[in-house]
Design a protein that fits this description.
4 helices, OB fold (Dihydrolipoamide Acetyltransferase, E2P), 7-stranded mixed β-barrel, 7 strands
Length: 194
């Protein structure tokens, strides 16, 4: 193959790798209204953390109440390795057994899912891939800019989503002045790991 063609192939490969890497680590930085989160989610539900293992790192969520649609799964085992090294320890400080969450899941082509989960001011993204009758879930990163969408408690978000879906209230607008970040760290009893 002529040298010029190899250079072109190499350039295309480098650009493709850069684009794929960029997509995998990108934060949602646009102003994302809560109404858009509700509308875009094929499934909205409550969940509880069943188990957290900081050593693997992993967690398992168990579905609770269906708020919108009926999700085709009841348990969500998540690999918490993530694509941003500093986000896994941050998330582990904010997850514990029995902790409630609000979860929105959007179906994508090819048996893929994109999940945004919320717990007490912390948003995080998880991607799912279905193979046969099993779905593998992998944490990507915390969505630090979504605190502009909503930053209250899990109970407050559940009530807001429930009221919006029932037509009793309008979703609050995003707050463009809210700084990026995480919700509060969980206070743990002595001897327990977060």
């Amino acid at each position: 193959m002529p040298r010029k063609k190899w250079a072109t192939v190499g350039l295309v490969a480098v650009l493709a790798a850069l684009l794929l890497t960029h997509q995998a680590v990108a934060f949602i930085q646009k102003l994302f209204p809560l109404q858009e989160f509700i509308d875009d989610s094929d499934f909205l539900f409550t969940a509880k953390v069943e188990r957290v293992d900081p050593d693997k790192p992993s967690a398992v969520l168990v579905l609770g109440e269906h708020l919108k649609g009926k999700a085709p799964f009841t348990r969500i085992p998540i690999n918490l390795t993530g694509d941003k090294q500093k986000h896994t320890p941050q998330l582990l400080k904010r997850l514990a057994p029995d902790l409630p969450l609000i979860v929105g899941v959007k179906k994508q082509d090819g048996g893929k899912f994109m999940m945004l989960a919320f717990t007490n001011g912390t948003w995080f993204q998880v991607l799912g891939q279905t193979d046969g009758d099993q779905t593998r879930w992998a944490f990507t990163h915390c969505e630090i800019y979504l605190r502009r969408t909503f930053k209250g408690t899990t109970d407050e978000l559940k009530q807001t989503v429930t009221d919006v879906l029932a037509g009793k209230a309008k979703a609050p607008p995003p707050n463009p002045k809210e700084p990026a970040g995480f919700g509060p760290v969980l206070e743990m009893s002595a001897g327990k790991k977060p």
